[in-house]
Design goal:
By secondary structure, this protein is an alpha/beta fold. It has 21 helices and nine strands. It starts with a helix and ends with a helix.
């Protein structure tokens, strides 16, 4: 295990020679330079454009694509000769995509973009795994350059040896799809990353990432600076007065009335979005001026620093002498396995060794994932004391224990992966999927007004008209659910028993919060997983006995046949 931990932690993922670390403007300049390089190497025919595709790893990660759009818009040699296509890569119940499409239309109308230089495609996640992969393959086809957007750092966590799972089903699946196409078509695939603090408190090893991905310059905890509002300042736009810069960004991003929050907490009217430099910061204000949809924290932080850079006066000041740094952006080319000794690159090596790249369904994907993780999880670090995810970890640990104990009580000889195969877990997950297909959740469990899978599906189709079926297991891979099955499998695998493994997992978490809320949705998912594990095991035992009985009967028939042949003189 120690050797494996050292080996995995040192695997490369990006080419350090191509790495650009700085602010948003540096990312734009870096993308512009890369596009020039690729265009020169591709040498398109007269009239043919360099085709760039941008994909995000889930939700609003794709907002980062505006850096690529700006790189093209402000460069004469690229403006008419490059087309940047983006797939929204949004969640089924996301509502920000029409606002982004309107923003692109506004940039075109204002003459900031050339006609035909940008294409915005709606593509929501949540469909069955093979359907999603086919859609991504369609967006990649014919492209000369790929940009993968990442807000946070969870995509860099190893899928097998990483102890604490992340919100990274989409991260890893999309990354592999992009790299498979890039390897086949021999085109470069780039990382465009910001907002590392989003995920670090989930138990990610920041020091390891700083060395392997960020060249020793990982920006974390940079926005915990204390702020003080002017004396007598009354806050009505958000429930509580923010005490730090990061808390301010979170409050504004989640505010029910975005215009009021921008005006009150930033002293800025979002209708003035066109006065802001940078497409990314301007989009945050445009969104607030047109809708109350949530705004990413990274976008609010970018807006704050953009306003301060132009001398804007805020209704608050820093409590101590300091300055707010610009949010860090990273641009770098992903390495191909063929460029690295033995093909061992971070994430892809483990992902493909587990067979996750050939999975057709989410049941197959998660089943193979869990079996590959058996006895391979490595504790590189613990979840930090101040983690905002502590309660969710504890909630899933408790439910995982219930699943493990309930399964073991019904099936004392239960084995998570008989013969190191994933068949049992896949059948268990398929059982859970069948039960979830028409399951009615309680009010508030899903994004209102959705009550069941069909409601979420209908909401997705309202904006993406060709959206197919929402996978019945769409909830399983989310960060508030994925550890239920992972912790349960750990405790069922453990040779020392459920209780001992529970204690070991607990030793890597912060102290249990006073209040750990278990929603009905979490409890129902845990129950269905437990029932699926039990049914799969009992079904396997019945099949095994049936096979043994058939074998015994066949043997008796063979013996009787042989006796008859001996008596008749044939033998």
């Amino acid at each position: 295990i120690a050797r494996l931990a050292t080996e995995c932690s040192s695997l490369p993922m990006v080419d350090p020679a191509t790495r650009c670390i700085g602010g948003y403007r540096d990312a734009v300049a870096g993308l512009r330079a890369k596009m020039r390089e690729v265009r020169a190497s591709v040498a398109p025919s007269p009239g043919e454009k360099l085709e760039v595709v941008v994909l995000g790893h889930g939700g609003r990660d794709t907002n980062c694509w505006l850096a690529a759009v700006e790189a093209v818009a402000l460069e004469d040699t690229l403006r008419e000769n490059v087309c940047v296509s983006v797939a929204s890569c949004s969640w089924p119940d996301d509502a920000w995509e029409p606002i982004m499409a309107r923003y692109v239309d506004q940039l075109l109308a204002a003459g900031k973009l050339a006609e035909g230089s940008v294409k915005f495609h709606l593509m929501k996640y949540g469909e069955e795994h093979n359907v999603l992969m086919a859609r991504i393959a369609g967006h990649l086809e014919g492209k000369h350059l790929i940009v993968q957007c990442e807000q946070g750092v969870d995509m860099f966590v190893e899928p097998i040896t990483g102890e604490w799972l992340q919100d990274n089903y989409e991260d890893h699946a999309v990354h592999n799809a992009c790299m498979e196409y890039a390897e086949r078509a021999r085109v470069p695939s780039f990382l465009l990353q910001t907002n590392a603090d989003l995920d670090v408190s989930r138990g990610i090893d920041g020091e390891e990432l700083a060395a392997s991905i960020f060249g020793g310059k990982l920006q974390t905890e940079a926005f915990g600076l204390n702020i003080e509002f002017d004396r007598g300042f009354e806050i009505t736009a958000v429930p509580h007065q923010p005490q730090t810069v990061i808390a301010l960004a979170v409050a504004i991003g989640a505010a029910q009335d975005k215009k009021a929050a921008f005006k009150q907490l930033l002293n800025f009217d979002p209708a003035q979005y066109a006065t802001l430099s940078g497409f990314y910061a301007a989009y945050m204000a445009f969104s607030a001026d047109n809708t109350d949809a949530s705004v990413p924290v990274a976008g609010v932080l970018e807006l704050i620093t953009t306003l301060l850079d132009k001398g804007h006066t805020m209704p608050w000041h820093l409590a101590a002498e300091a300055s707010i740094p610009s949010p860090q952006w990273v641009l770098a080319r992903f390495l191909f396995p063929m460029e690295v000794q033995h093909g061992h690159v971070c994430v892809l090596r483990e992902f493909r060794q587990a067979g996750m790249h050939t999975a057709k369904t989410l049941a197959e994907y998660v089943g193979r994932w869990m079996v590959a993780r058996a006895f391979q999880r490595v504790r590189r670090n613990v979840v930090p004391q101040n983690s905002r995810f502590a309660a969710k970890f504890w909630m899933q640990l408790d439910l995982g224990k219930e699943v493990a104990e309930g399964t073991r009580a019904r099936c004392p000889d239960f084995d998570v992966c008989p013969s190191r195969a994933s068949d049992l877990l896949v059948r268990a997950l398929e059982h859970a999927a069948g039960a979830l297909k028409n399951f009615e959740f309680e009010p508030g469990d899903l994004q209102p007004p959705s009550m069941c899978r069909g409601d979420v599906e209908k909401e997705a189709r309202a904006s993406q008209h060709d959206y197919g079926e929402l996978s019945s297991l769409w909830l399983i891979t989310m960060p508030a659910f994925i550890h239920i099955i992972d912790f349960a499998c750990r405790m069922l695998e453990a040779p020392q028993g459920v209780e001992a493994e529970y204690a070991f997992i607990k030793s890597g978490l912060p102290p249990r919060p006073d209040r750990v809320r278990i929603t009905p949705a979490n409890r129902n998912i845990a129950r269905l997983l437990r029932e699926g594990l039990i049914e799969a095991w009992l079904g396997r035992e019945i099949m095994s006995k049936h096979t043994a009985r058939e074998g015994s009967q066949s043997l008796r028939l063979d013996e009787e046949s042989m006796a008859k042949r001996v008596c008749s003189g044939e033998v």
